[in-house]
Fold this sequence. Notes:
This protein is α/β, with parallel strands linked by helices. The protein has helices at about 10-20, 40-50, 65-75, 80-85, 125-130, 150-160, 200-205, 265-285, 300-310; strands at about 5, 25, 35-40, 60-65, 90-95, 115-120, 135, 165-170, 180, 190, 210, 235-240, 245-250, 260, 285-290. Helix 1 (about 10-20) packs across helix 5 (about 125-130). It is globular. The two termini are about 35 Å apart.
Amino acid sequence: xxxxxxxxxxxxxxxxxxxxxxxxxxxxxxxxxxxxxxxxxxxxxxxxxxxxxxxxxxxxxxxxxxxxxxxxxxxxxxxxxxxxxxxxxxxxxxxxxxxxxxxxxxxxxxxxxxxxxxxxxxxxxxxxxxxxxxxxxxxxxxxxxxxxxxxxxxxxxxxxxxxxxxxxxxxxxxxxxxxxxxxxxxxxxxxxxxxxxxxxxxxxxxxxxxxxxxxxxxxxxxxxxxxxxxxxxxxxxxxxxxxxxxxxxxxxxxxxxxxxxxxxxxxxxxxxxxxxxxxxxxxxxxxxxxxxxxxxxxxxxxxxxxxxxxxxx
Length: 313
Ligand code: TXA
Ligand code: MG
């Protein structure tokens, strides 16, 4: 049994002591709950991969408590600095060349000479990392391929007994994983859409972002098509549920089921996405999902839905 603890100074200290001993601590972030461990400790990282059942070729994001901590880990170009100044702390991950002073172990980077860095906005996550004093790696705190957790209870449902402590920071406000931009190669490249929107990034950069191709070497790890997979089969862009289907709506509609946002608000829809998918997955074998407009945050929502719907069989 893993305890769920509210965030206060005593539980933050306990969490940091688990991290120092190579343990695993689930922490809230503004996007989804992350499963944190000492980024410099390969034994801890191996335990983390095992707890998630994650393919070890999938590199992890190192989470830092300050820009200074980030600069010790990676070589920032001017454009990366611009994005960090504009969007950190917040749901943006930057992929950069690893610095000679970097402390993140090879296993966490899957042997790449690049590193993904994020400075989260959630005060609980930042306090934990600052108290620990070094970067933590933190993939979403779910079993690999399962739905990302947006509540402490979701973490417990997936990882009870496999992690040392779950810090409860309430529901995640963003509900979708961070936007990932890579500065490896000739042009800044969007590797994963998220709640920091492409147009906002391009406005700060003053150039357009390249898009990673599916199956592209560098982005392949995290771009597994079946990454966000509920057990139920998903039918996307549905206009109404068919017999035997649970319904996940968007905008005003009359169907029985759940609604990501009755008012058609994409921010609300993103925050509800994973918990509603999880709820319907427990109830039904098939889920019909309403059309989500592919603009703004809709791009990230549709990306997650496409992955959740994908089957290799
Ligand atoms: O919002 C988030 O980013 C959450 C919270 C917990 O912070 N974390 C998260 O981590 O989504 P994870 O492990 O589920 O996703 C990490 C992504 C993967 O797509 C991985 O391939 C990519 O980051 N990644 C990590 N290092 C990379 C690198 N060096 N080059 C390219 N992609 C990288
Ligand atoms: Mg994940």
